[in-house]
């Protein structure tokens, strides 16, 4: 049976059809506009790429400008960029691709000053710059943003002349006012920067002498005065100055990072700890004489050692720092060696691992405030066995904060070797005996000698070391309770001095200033003397050494300080590890320098040939 349709039905059908047509046309128009926008963005990216390549070519000398049929020399390249310039002259040199690495822990914050770990510092080094940088071949200082300097005869005034072509990644010019601001910002008490203030307090003032000259005036002589002034990270005034009005917002921030370096955060306020990675993009406005080769620098957060190795095997990260336990096997692994260059070395600035004994907690002295107890714990800590069984010989004992090859080190000093009897004697002198015959020492009040050793839970070698120490300490009647923690939680415990003992490491330098870690004045809240160690005699020597500019007179003072630390054992100093590294062969121009492998050096010295590149953007 036929159905009859009414006029209103036809009208409704027509109306719906019209709406559909309009929607389709609108979508088509939006799609066309989006394509045009994409074309514009692509064109801009291509133009930026062309400019980068032209600038690099000019810097490397492969392109020369012509005027009136006369060929002129290429622009001068600052000394700091000479090694990078040499890289660009390699036959297979190419720009593009990504540098991809992994961090073994999540980061709490990337905000300068607020961050306290080496991982955040590594990221910041790609974004923020300083006036000078150290030459990896000669270890001498050379200009980066500074193009010249003068030091007054008394060493109290240092004047830097700056390049006038430097801009921050947002295009704002970098001037002397930004350096003045950086100093004043750090010295503002409301800003959470106690570690930096501890060093900069020797500076009386920083002032601008015109737009591109900055003057540092010191209150008193300081042996690292030039280094301190020249390596101050430059914070853009226009970006950070508003936080002087809301310092708590700065102190609690997670990713406020902007600078003049070769890379930048896509959004300088956007990064969050739950991002799962840290990604920097090329600074298209970079002022450097040689442009960086990589389009992006990425760090993936991979906390598990096995997962990091698998990720490296699959080509998803460019390097893998091997544990000693697996290093020999990996060197015999055809798949790993087929794709890798491997490096095994002890950097001259290798940091050291330690166990820190907290001497004050909740305003009261702990058992570790007694020097005899700390000495006993060092005698019980069999460093030689740790190096043999866990580090498999790829480490050397750390006697003190000073490298054994440093002029600061007194070669006549001896490490604490494992000595159970000596440890037991010292503990008995300190009042510890097994009074109830349960195998655990007790103090005079009957309280058992037991403590928690806090350590980073994701480090398998540290976990094995802690279990070894638990057995060694038990021989003397000392009960160690392993206390594994996530990295951000560890930092919280550390900053609040809320721990019994903790095992960590410090980075090191050509000459190590121990003020930050061992001077009594730094046993304050958020100071880096987190164990509340205080020794007036050591304080005096540290102060004298820091104020002695002449090296020949300064080194004996450091050696006296070292003798006190070896006697006091504020830390049980463990070892310095060798670097055991595999790097994907796609990463080119890898070289050993006096600072170690040049991967990660700035200005950037590595690249990926065009035929081996994996990432297009």
TrEMBL record:
GO terms of biological process kind: peptide transport
Name of this protein: Peptide-binding protein
Top-level taxon of origin: Bacteria
Listed SUPFAM superfamilies: Periplasmic binding protein-like II
Pfam families noted in UniProt: SBP_bac_5
Coiled-coil region: none
TM spans (from-to): 7-28
InterPro entries for this protein: Peptide/Ni-bd (IPR030678), SBP_5 (IPR039424), SBP_5_dom (IPR000914)
A cellular component term, taken from the record's GO annotations: outer membrane-bounded periplasmic space
Domain Solute-binding protein family: 142-513
Organism: Thiothrix fructosivorans
GO MF, one annotated term: peptide transmembrane transporter activity
Family of this protein: Belongs to the bacterial solute-binding protein 5 family.
UniProt entry keywords in alphabetical sequence: Membrane, Signal, Transmembrane, Transmembrane helix, Transport
């Amino acid at each position: 049976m036929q159905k009859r349709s009414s006029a209103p039905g036809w009208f409704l059908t027509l109306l719906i059809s019209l709406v559909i047509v309009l929607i389709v046309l609108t979508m088509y128009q939006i799609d066309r506009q989006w394509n045009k926008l994409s074309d514009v963005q692509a064109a801009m990216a291509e133009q930026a790429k062309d400019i980068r390549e032209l600038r690099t070519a000019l810097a490397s000398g492969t392109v020369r400008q012509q005027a009136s049929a006369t060929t002129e020399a290429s622009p001068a390249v600052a000394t700091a960029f000479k090694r990078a310039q040499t890289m660009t002259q390699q036959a297979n040199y190419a720009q593009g691709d990504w540098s991809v690495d992994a961090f073994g822990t999540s980061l709490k914050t990337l905000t300068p000053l607020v961050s306290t770990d080496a991982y955040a510092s590594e990221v910041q080094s790609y974004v923020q710059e300083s006036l000078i940088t150290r030459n990896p071949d000669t270890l001498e200082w050379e200009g980066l943003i500074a193009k010249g300097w003068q030091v007054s005869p008394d060493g109290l005034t240092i004047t830097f002349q700056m390049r006038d072509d430097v801009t921050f990644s947002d295009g704002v010019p970098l001037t002397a006012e930004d350096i003045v601001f950086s100093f004043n910002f750090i010295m503002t008490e409301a800003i959470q920067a106690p570690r930096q203030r501890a060093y900069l307090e020797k500076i009386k003032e920083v002032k601008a002498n015109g737009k591109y000259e900055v003057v540092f005036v010191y209150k008193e002589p300081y042996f690292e005065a030039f280094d301190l002034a020249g390596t101050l990270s430059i914070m853009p005034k226009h970006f950070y100055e508003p936080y002087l009005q809301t310092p708590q917002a700065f102190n609690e921030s997670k990713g406020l990072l902007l600078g003049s370096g070769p890379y930048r955060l896509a959004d300088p306020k956007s990064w969050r700890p739950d991002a799962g990675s840290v990604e920097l993009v090329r600074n298209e406005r970079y002022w450097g004489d040689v442009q960086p080769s990589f389009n992006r620098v990425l760090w993936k957060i991979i906390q598990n050692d096995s997962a990091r190795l698998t990720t490296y095997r699959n080509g998803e990260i460019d390097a893998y720092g091997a544990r000693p336990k697996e290093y020999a096997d990996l060197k015999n692994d055809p798949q790993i060696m087929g794709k890798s260059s491997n490096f095994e070395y002890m950097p001259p600035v290798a940091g050291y691992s330690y166990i820190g004994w907290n001497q004050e907690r909740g305003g009261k002295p702990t058992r570790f405030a007694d020097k005899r107890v700390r000495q006993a714990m060092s005698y019980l800590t069999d460093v030689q066995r740790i190096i043999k069984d866990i580090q498999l010989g790829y480490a050397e004992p750390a006697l003190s904060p000073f490298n054994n090859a440093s002029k600061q080190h007194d070669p006549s000093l001896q490490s604490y070797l494992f000595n159970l009897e000596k440890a037991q004697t010292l503990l008995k002198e300190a009042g510890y005996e097994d009074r109830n015959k349960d195998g655990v020492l007790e103090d005079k009040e009957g309280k058992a000698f037991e403590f928690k050793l806090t350590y980073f839970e994701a480090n398998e070698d540290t976990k094995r070391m802690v279990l070894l120490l638990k057995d060694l300490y038990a021989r003397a009647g000392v009960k160690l309770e392993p206390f594994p923690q996530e990295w951000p939680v560890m930092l919280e415990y550390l900053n609040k001095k809320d721990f019994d003992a903790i095992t960590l490491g410090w980075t090191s330098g050509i000459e190590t200033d121990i003020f930050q870690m061992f001077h009594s004045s730094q046993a304050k809240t958020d100071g880096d003397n987190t164990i509340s160690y205080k020794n007036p005699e050591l304080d005096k020597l540290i102060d004298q050494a820091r104020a002695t500019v002449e090296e020949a007179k300064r080194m004996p003072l450091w050696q006296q300080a070292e003798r006190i630390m070896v006697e006091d054992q504020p830390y049980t100093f463990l070892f310095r590890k060798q670097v055991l590294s595999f790097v994907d062969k796609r990463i080119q121009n890898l070289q050993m320098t006096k600072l170690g492998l040049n991967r990660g050096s700035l200005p950037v010295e590595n690249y990926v040939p065009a035929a081996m590149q994996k990432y297009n953007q």
